Amino acid sequence: MKILKIKLHWQILIALVLAVLFGYFVPQGVKYVTWMGEIFLTSLKMVIVPLILSSIISGVTSMGGGNNLGRMGAKTMIYYISTSILAILTGLLMVNIIKPGVGVEMGFTENVAEIAKNTGSVNDILMRIVPPNIFDAMAKGDILPVIFFAIIFGVFITQVKGKYKETLTTFFEAVFEVMMKMTMFIIKFTPLGIFGIVSHEVSKNAHQLTNLAGSMAIYMITVFLALGIHAFITLPLILRFVAKVKPYAHMRNMVTPLLTAFSTASSSATLPLTMEAVEHKSGVSNPITSFTLPLGATINMDGTALYECVAAIFIAQVYGVDFTFSQQILVVVTALLASIGAAGIPMAGLVMLTIILSAAGLPLEGIGLILAVDLLLDMTRTSVNVWSDSCAAVTIARSEKEKTNIAI
Ligand code: ASP
């Protein structure tokens, strides 16, 4: 990539634009480039589990376990829950003001049986955290149980003595260094990967462009506006007044992961890039990066939470159901839980929407209505998810008196 001498995020942007044009105008050529996207995504998935495992274990051991970890854990959870609630309330406000579902025709034909089958419950979400078999969880790439195991393992490393503690600490630090180097190598191929992914998606979905017209457009605009308020106003205000750094300086550092999140619609696949940017560009220390980001990629999904709320109320509006205040509160709470439970993979939010619809007594078929326009919304909410995770890392680092590289 050196030959190009263009900054990576510009390369990605150019790749994104070219991919849209290529996918739209030369769809028959897309099959020759799809492999680039597939290899890129597979390589990211390849590094995720060892990267998370080694980074969390080395992060926890360098924090010394115990008290520090507890304090950091508490701060992280407070940040995650409060920003998710702020996001949901923004969505709730916008969907009540714009009322995109009022007057929408219900002539949809999508088959939702596949999605409805995956309906989970809040209990399932909690039960997924403790792995009965850690190797199975790692093999399946189930991040939440891997995080749980890594934290506990790291804490207990700090409780053994002498050479065992040293050996394990050094070992996981070394693995982490190597995984980070591998990640940086993969990142160089992001423009090619994104070209493959996006041109494939564009060629596959070009015919759906007509769906963007009419009342679905108002629904999409509602989601975009609410996501925009959260990403460009709420989170920057937190960075400005709580973390006391320049929000847009941090955003510039995050361009590569944000564009990757947008193109892949997966916060998990983007995680290696997010960790690299937050640590090496914004200058957050390794213990904080490795503790907050993997956790954030799985449980902190502001964009998804906001989207779930807008989508549920939109469906209610389409069905002519007028939600009372307490029903809206129910939607807020279930949207929060659903966003925590959603995996960081494409369309996970749509699947979790079934939980909210069943809790609110709405027909699952409502999902068929919004399925067709989910792709673009998924890409956008994933960028917001990743942006919020990175803001969490910075805010927590600043609260721990870290300097970071971001201008203040
Ligand atoms: N695709 C999102 C993510 O990976 C989850 C969702 O579908 O909302 O963050």
End-to-end Cα distance = 32 Å
The oligomeric status of these chains comes to single chain
CATH topology of the domain at 2-31 and 74-129 and 207-399: Proton glutamate symport protein
Whole-angstrom Rg: 21 Å
Number of beta-strand segments: 0
For the largest beta-sheet, the strand count, sense and barrel status come to:
none
Shape: globular
Note the total helix count. Answer: 19
Report on this structure.
This protein has 408 residues and is mainly alpha-helical. It has a domain at 2-31 and 74-129 and 207-399: Proton glutamate symport protein (Orthogonal Bundle). Helices cover 76% and strands 0% of the residues. It contains 19 helices and no strands. It has helices spanning 8-25, 34-63, 66-98, 113-117, 122-127, 134-140, 143-157, 162-187, 190-205, 215-243, 247-253, 255-264, 267-281, 286-299, 302-318, 325-341, 348-360, 366-371, 374-399. Helix 2 runs antiparallel to helix 8, helix 10 runs antiparallel to helix 15 (302-318) and helix 15 crosses helix 17. The chain is globular and about 70 Å long. It starts with 7 loop residues before the first helix and ends in a 9-residue tail after the last helix. The model is unreliable at 108-119 (pLDDT under 50). Bound molecules: aspartic acid (ASP). Aspartic acid is lined by residues 265-267, 301, 304, 342, 344-349, 378, 381-382, 385. The site of aspartic acid (ASP) has 16 residues, from helix 17 and helix 19.
